[in-house]
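[job 0412] stage=complex_fold ligand=dinuclear copper ion status=START
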Amino acid sequence: MAEITSPRTRLEAQAEGTAHRVERVWAWSMAAIMAALVTVVVFSALHWGLNPPSSVETIDSTRLQLGGEFSEANLGTSAAPNGAITVRLLAQQYAFNPSCILVPADTPITLRGVSADVVHGLLVEGTNVNTMLVPGYVATLTTRFSQPGEYTMPCHEFCGVGHQGMWARVRVVSPQAFPLEQAKQEPVRCERK
Ligand code: CUA
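[job 0412] stage=complex_fold status=DONE, emitting structure tokens
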């Protein structure tokens, strides 16, 4: 690179001073914006429990119905012998299976969702449940519904012409009303009650 050896004029020095000032303003603005974004991320993570899925787990989306964890018979809410609750659901154009999820209130719940075709969105309104269901991956997240009630679970990722009508419900019942013993035998869901 050729070095500039000519003596600097006053004008050049002024221009450089201006450039430095503008650069500083730019750098500080960017730092402020980044700090604001980090604050939003930290606040939503700590205050609302909104976190991206922390593990990457792959699955063959073309063979979900042929057996394994997400076969028809395994979809719904299961309870482990120790009472731990896991909900398994499958998204497919244009429905969720199960279309109504039954869970106990005030209980830690692990949600495991997959898509059998395209990208769908999993969202339970008013909770921290909010993730994408990407073909080839298992989305796992944990949540807790503080009180009984009925929640809407719309697909929030455009997935085709039927996207608007793709939604399911989550029915939260009191821990006493939840068929825990049955859920230890086979997955439960509200349609089957
Ligand atoms: Cu499924 Cu939108």
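Strands lie at 76-79, 85-92, 95-97, 100-104, 108-115, 120-123, 130-133, 139-144, 149-154, 167-173.
[job 0412] exit 0
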